[in-house]
Amino acid sequence: MSKEKQQVSRRQFLNYSLMGVGGFMAAGLLVSPIRMAIDPVLKKSDSGDYANVGLSVDDITTEPQRVDWTIEQVDGWYESEPSKTAWVYKDDDGEIVALSPICTHLGCVVSWEGSEQYPEQFYCPCHDGRYEKDGTNIPGTPPLAPLAVYEQKVENGILFLGNAIDRKGA
Ligand code: FES
Description:
By secondary structure, this protein is an alpha+beta fold. The protein has one helix at residues 2-42; strands spanning 51-56, 65-70, 73-75, 78-80, 83-90, 96-99, 111-112, 122-124, 129-131, 149-155, 158-165. The protein has a three-stranded antiparallel β-sheet, with no helix packed on it. Strands 2-5-6 form a three-stranded antiparallel β-sheet, with no helix packed on it. The structure holds FE2/S2 (inorganic) cluster. FE2/S2 (inorganic) cluster (FES) is lined by residues 103, 105-108, 124, 126-127, 129, 142-143. The main subunits of the menaquinol:cytochrome c complex are a Rieske-type iron-sulfur protein (QcrA), a cytochrome b (QcrB) and a cytochrome c (QcrC).
């Protein structure tokens, strides 16, 4: 009788042990997918935010200058810090203009006065695309739409840029 009782006790002990280890392993397996599903939703996203591009408004002239900065980007589980670029200047009314450097033809990078042949224009070296200073595409060159314009705001005299907004083609 006491031997049988002892065997049951061992069996119970084994069952509890296996259940405990199994439960621990199952919890470990479940935590990761649950965290993967919830964490990106709860995390603060930088998308749509304005970034301090480190440029004082006082330093912006009528000559387009290249400004580079990085943003924190979370894409699912992939976190990165892609770099961004804008061409920034003040127009004749003193308004700040921030243009995307991405050519609207096939996505190469344009430069202000990138060709000596075309002064006072943005130039794309890939297929000789050209844009006016305000980003308008020049008819007869490959791009069919103007350069995108960054959303912008000024805080404490510092320029902040947001998303680049596409413009309709001429
Ligand atoms: S990519 Fe700029 S002209 Fe083609």
